[in-house]
Hints:
The chain is α+β, with helices and mostly antiparallel strands.
Amino acid sequence: MLINIEMPKMGESLTEGTVLEWKVKVGDTIEKDQTLLEIATDKVDSEIPSPVTGKVVEITGEVNQTYDVGTVIARIETDVDANSAAGGGSSTPKTEASAGKESASIPSSTSTPTPTPAQVIPTSEPKASGPPVTDNRFYSPAVRKIAHAENISMGELASVSGTGKKGRVTKKDMDTYLRTRGTQKASTPVTVVQRETLPSSGLAEKFAASADIMEMDNMRRRIAQHMRQSLDTAAHVYTVSECDMSRIMNFIASNGEGFKTKHSHSLTVTHFITYAVRDALVKFPLVNASLDGTKIIKHRAINVGIAVAVKDGLVVPPVRNAENLNLVGISKAVSEIVRKSRNKQLMPDDLQGSTFSITNFGVFGSLAGYPIINQPNVAILGVGIIKKRPVVIEMDGTDAIAIRQICHLTLGFDHRLIDGAMGSSFLETVVENLENFDLDGII
């Protein structure tokens, strides 16, 4: 039988996705859970595994084209029956959105609900592929029962004209549709969403003869749009402080191996910084807020976004509910974030909900920087390189020069909500938390 591979729904608020790269071609045999293609949403790029083992017989989703969720983008021929492809017996509960069709679930190593883009089509009864599901109509049990009995997918059901209240489809509408269904074309052209992401200044045309012109990839477009939006929205102000990280760095050097043995992941300076920021946000809740016009949104949860450099870009998934985590809990959350980010296992919902962000450009050798606020946050912490320097310290009331591991911390904040006094006080609290970190009992 044929398995229709549909554009999956990668997040609650997402309605479309872009095909970035097919990992197979027509005629290839693919194993279940083997990567089938890579797609992009306006939040993240993700690798999509095949829900079944079979032979790729058709690829309709074109690279760099955007399709609505539910649009068929490929077909796989497989020997499994419909019930097996659906991942179990008939007792498996179905959601309202999936009633009336069998779906083959996509396995995932993440804890996020997995998309289900495969629709099972018996090879003995090919049917028309309807337009992308774009309506939010309610379908009565009677209508759904007819759709199921007649093997009508949700995509095809969306094309049925409704004469009921608010355009709802009635039993009479279904009877009318079924009488004329056989006269319709076998397939309907797929709607491809086209949109320009950034305005053009005409420079590409001007330098076309003397320069290499290339198109931004999906991730770079998202970053460009997001950063431009932030600069157009927030009144950026910066303050910078030095922080003595000697105690923490010495602790990591002495105890890092033991920590990794016990907890199965490395202990890094980012874990300490995230913890110190968390404590400062508890003391300064407005720095953990967002703005909506003249309304101040004071978030109850502290979700610290961690900027992670990935191939050709950057993602900022948050450590959620950091207020409830100790250092070990934060270290586990950060390590998992980094792992999923670099293995392209993030789902769009994994990138939602940050209330404050941290970006560490010091890992690339930068002394300091002035990061753009990650909307809708009102502040962001930039972390510079930790470097040994001679500094003046006081010992027993006498000044002395000592070698210390110093880091520059930069706080970017939105002056619409946070004034200089609060921003500076917040940053100094972070510094104090780091320099006086309680290192007892961490291991």
